[in-house]
């Protein structure tokens, strides 16, 4: 179980001021959630919607253990001067999901909160949860197996900057490579926003903790700053990590260990890594200069 969860990894004791300020910018940026058809665009701040979700869940009897900014957005907060970009705003709520009813409750809570963001003048009484789901939800995923229990609700954005709310009880693998393994615990920031209306400043901002589920925060941060590609237990990566690996290579990242990745490149493009399932029917030009025919060729 300890290996499966991987939440309690080596920690950066407290993020420096410039990283906390960058986190504040991410949390308070207004992100549009685009509706389909004639439905209005919702204007959402990540800090606002996350706080509302936590509050409503707890009022409904669901304990939220903590809330984390995850993946590429967390990497952007930690390192900005290498041109690292992000699209999705990926947030993890750590919760218990013991039953199907818990999954349904979370979905109902999020859909209900979307009503709060509808502009004045909209008749909310005529809008059903099913309508909200069809209009504003880009993706709805539920995984409920012996080893993985989590759900994902992705809010639509026409520019690809989706707000992704992930509710995790257990998950075997949370990252592909060290550079996307960062998580930033948001609870202290959310509490600060609730208590203080003054602008964020070095004198007033709270202590914020960063973690890496790769296994060592400073090593992973070194990889990110120096554009190095590294991973652990590649056999656990769903689909083998090929897409992300190619994406990193075309952005001028390099393997931290050339010899290790020569073997790993072959593995990532093999059926053992799930390559056949993800890429069946496609001809794939790989960024490291190899061409692997599709299964039908």
UniProtKB/TrEMBL annotation:
Task: Write down the chemical reaction(s) this protein catalyses.
Answer: RNA(n) + ATP = RNA(n)-3'-adenine ribonucleotide + diphosphate
* Lineage top rank: taxon: Eukaryota
Its EC number(s): 2.7.7.19
Keyword Transferase: yes or no?
yes
Q: GO cellular component terms?
A: centrosome; nucleus
The family classification in the record reads: Belongs to the TENT family.
What is this protein identified as?
A: Terminal nucleotidyltransferase 5C
- Source species: Kryptolebias marmoratus (Mangrove killifish)
């Amino acid at each position: 179980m300890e290996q499966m969860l991987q939440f309690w990894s080596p920690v950066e004791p407290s993020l420096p001021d410039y990283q906390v300020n960058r986190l504040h910018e991410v949390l308070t940026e207004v992100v549009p959630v685009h509706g389909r058809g004639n439905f209005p665009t919702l204007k959402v701040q990540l800090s606002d919607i996350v706080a509302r979700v936590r509050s409503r869940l707890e009022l409904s009897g669901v304990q939220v253990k903590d809330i984390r900014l995850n993946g590429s957005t967390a990497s952007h907060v930690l390192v900005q001067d290498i041109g690292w970009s992000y699209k999705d705003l990926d947030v993890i709520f750590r919760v218990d999901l013991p039953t199907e009813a818990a999954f349904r409750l979370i979905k109902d809570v999020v859909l209900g909160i979307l009503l709060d963001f509808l502009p004045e003048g909209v008749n909310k009484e005529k809008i059903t949860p099913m309508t909200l789901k069809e209009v504003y939800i880009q993706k709805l995923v539920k995984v409920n197996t012996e080893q993985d229990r989590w759900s994902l609700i992705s809010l639509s954005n026409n520019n690809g900057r989706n707000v992704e709310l992930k509710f995790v009880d257990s998950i075997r693998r949370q990252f592909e490579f060290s550079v996307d393994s960062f998580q930033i615990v948001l609870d202290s920031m959310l509490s600060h926003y609730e208590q203080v209306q003054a602008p964020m400043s070095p004198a007033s901002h709270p202590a914020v903790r960063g973690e890496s589920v790769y296994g060592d925060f400073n090593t992973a941060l070194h990889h990110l700053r120096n554009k190095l590609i590294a991973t652990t237990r590649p056999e656990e990566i769903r689909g083998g990590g090929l897409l992300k690996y190619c994406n990193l290579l075309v952005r001028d990242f390099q393997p931290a260990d050339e010899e290790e990745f020569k073997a790993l490149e072959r593995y990532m493009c093999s059926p053992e890594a799930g390559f056949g399932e993800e890429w069946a029917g496609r001809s794939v030009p790989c960024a490291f200069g190899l061409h692997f025919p599709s299964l039908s060729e």
